[in-house]
Amino acid sequence: MVTSTFAAFIATVVTIPALGWYLIYISTVKLTRQKRKAIKWASDFSAVLFMAAVYFIMEQLWEPTSVWLVLALFFSVAITFTVIYWNVMEDFYATKLLKGIWRLNFLIFVSIYILLSGYGLIRSIFSFV
């Protein structure tokens, strides 16, 4: 019973990662009373949810996709961000660099999630016409 409920919760949060982001945000605001920190923490922790959601949407839209596409995007963003950061700062601090990479990937995957969700919705609407 508990495992099926937990599995259903995880499936829902991966399917609708904005819900996961919101739950993390609300929990963090209740714990810390700092909205800015809550937004950062929610974005950091829900980035994985958005990455998983993008992967599963791609699996539904195009059958032969694989994890390598998501990983390739993640690492290409990381490499590009690192090169730009190094050119601008001329020295790099690992913690700032990793936070920047992670948060940029969060923004990119949220954008991709929104675009793919819209595309899938339009595609399913026109498949009935």
Q: What would you note in describing this structure?
A:
- Helix 1 crosses helix 2 and helix 3 packs across helix 5.
- It is globular, with a radius of gyration of 17 Å.
- 89% of the residues lie in helices and 0% in strands.
- The chain contains 5 helices and no strands.
- It is mostly helical.
- The model has no long low-confidence stretch (mean pLDDT 88).
- The longest helix is centred in the last third of the chain and has 35 residues.
Please tag this protein with its features.
single chain, mainly alpha, 0% strand, globular
What's this model, at a glance?
The model has no long low-confidence stretch (mean pLDDT 88). It is built from 5 helices and no strands.
Tell me the layout of helices and strands.
Blueprint: H1 2-15, H2 17-32, H3 35-61, H4 67-89, H5 94-128
Low-confidence stretches: none
Rg estimate, integer Å: 17 Å
The shape, in one word, is globular
Content of β-strand: under 5%
Biggest sheet layout = none
Given helix and strand content, the structural type is mainly alpha
Helix and strand succession?
Answer: HHHHH
Number of strand segments? 0
Q: What is the average of the pLDDT values?
A: 88
Helix content: over 70%
What is the overall number of helices? 5
Instruction: Tell me the span between the first and last alpha carbons.
Output: 41 Å
